[in-house]
Amino acid sequence: MSHHSHPAPIHLPDHHAAEKMAATIKGWARELGFGNIGVTDTDLSAAEPGFMRWLEKKYHGDMDYMAKHGSKRSRPAELVPGTLRVISVSLNYLPDDAQDGWKVLSEPDKAYVARYAMGRDYHKVMRQKLQQLCTRISSTFGSFEYRVFADSAPVLEVALATKAGVGWRGKHTLLLNRQQGSWFFLGEIYTNLPLPVDPPTSSHCGSCSACIDICPTQAIVAPYELDARRCISYLTIEHKGSIPLALRPLIGNRVYGCDDCQLICPWNKFAVATEESDFAVRNGLDSTDLVTCFAWTEAEFQQRMAGSAIYRIGYVQWLRNVAVGLGNAPTSAAVVNALTARQHDDSELVREHVQWALEIHNKNTINQ
């Protein structure tokens, strides 16, 4: 687990001592900027059948890693032996200086980037904060077993956060919280600390179906059920190959992820802007022109995206996504020229999406 020999579990004399310790840890977590924090046990038996059904329906698409860990994902103590408790935290990421999401989506010449990806890669930020919290716990209470996760291992994050009372699962399958909305990341500490568990919160979606109705590709196939193969976040980030033809026109100008289900959610009226400077907008990613970012060389892409989550999809996939955005943009000389300049790109994947986009603009020109 952590990098030292297995210490004996911290022994707490009574329930009162355990509660006091939990309260202390939560206070430190808030000082580190976490929005919500809860503690739960490792029993995910209620969530496991639904997860297995989701895999059986192949809703995970190419995300082989969702299936390959067997039951480790739904059984935390199989992933990290000795785990008694999971500490679940949320970290708000919406920068208050970003262009309004709807505004960027309504300008088809702009490249829409999911709000979570406009600043520094959250994996690093979350892991550092969780590590700081664990260091503080061990320096005060003595060494203990732990392992921190930030969307980085077979962990059923939303199920754990729901059990820990950090929020409830919305119909779009993301976690929602009455005070914080949904613009936050989740992180976990698997630990052997015998902390008292928190009760789950109740669900507050009611009869609202705004997220289901707004989804551009109708990826939310039923309340609380997402077919990732249709989801724009999956298609632009996780999916490495050719984007299915029928879905391309529906992607619009979304070149990295999609936020429609969060933008429309009434609970995000209560969203709290992040206090984390690492999540501030970098490189004008809240509203770059498609034509501009299609012209970047690989070196420019790497330099601009260094330290960003977008860096991880790589240059070719970025160009593929932007080509789709350009295909959906209004026909103009600038758009056609940008596409034509990449007609003979080194990547077959890029060429194919460029060809598709050019065919659309040719048709538009003929029909004018």
Automatic annotation (TrEMBL):
GO molecular function: epoxyqueuosine reductase activity
Residues annotated as domain 4Fe-4S ferredoxin-type: 193-225
UniProt entry keywords in alphabetical sequence: 4Fe-4S, Cobalamin, Cobalt, Cytoplasm, Iron, Iron-sulfur, Metal-binding, Oxidoreductase, Queuosine biosynthesis, tRNA processing
Subunit and interaction comment: Monomer.
Family, per entry: Belongs to the QueG family.
Matches recorded under NCBIfam families: tRNA epoxyqueuosine(34) reductase QueG
Name the record gives this protein: Epoxyqueuosine reductase
GN (gene name): queG
